[in-house]
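Comment thread on ticket #2218

A.B. wrote:
> Attaching the input chain for the structure job we discussed in standup.
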Amino acid sequence: MRRRRWIAIAVVAVLAVGAAVTAAAVPGLAATACPRCYGLHSLHNAVYADRDDPAYRALIDDADQHIASFYGSRLSSPRVLICSTTSCYHRLGGGGEKGRALRNWSLMLSPAGSNATIATHELSHTEFHQRLGSARGKVPQWFDEGLAVLVSDDARYLQPASTADRCKLPYEQARSVIGEDWRTAAADGDDRPYLQAGCVVSRWVSANGGPQAVVDLVAKLRAGGSWPAQQFG
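C.D. wrote:
> Ran it. Output below, let me know if you need it in another format.
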């Protein structure tokens, strides 16, 4: 009996240490599991913030509508963690970015990212990843980012939806993003890769029937198909 008791104690200790290590290494994941442990309080529908601000509810509702409008429905349901101060955001493991999606589990928004455009951009990532499932690795990051620009209708990187061509730079210049490493291209807060990716993806979506083209692409990839690189050649 004493041996079993010590084994049980050891297992609990190992789990506790593992949880502590995870919290220290990836605080965003720990905050996703326990928002209250990081000073965040429930607002509604899996939205947590460090203060009760009705504007936070409104911006997430607006972002949800954008996602549902593009896809026809919403499949993902990540927790949304919103910080009104940089100290709160850094406590969650955030850096200098405006927002960060942790796979399709959660979305972190910094004070600078607490607006509908940024929220929609990040929620586009979680929705796309949810729909792709295990096929996510087939999609280049530039397409994922360009799609988020399109779904969020980001006026910084796209012409108004009423224009025939939404690109803000010549398409031939935009296409170079296809062969670039996204992390390198987007380093140091350079906005040009977003202009390029938004241009290429918006042109592809428009030429292939609108948002349904993305739904069809997801279905093809999940069924075992390959990334259609030739369509962007």
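A.B. wrote:
> Thanks. Noting for the ticket: Residues 2-25 form the longest helix (24 residues).
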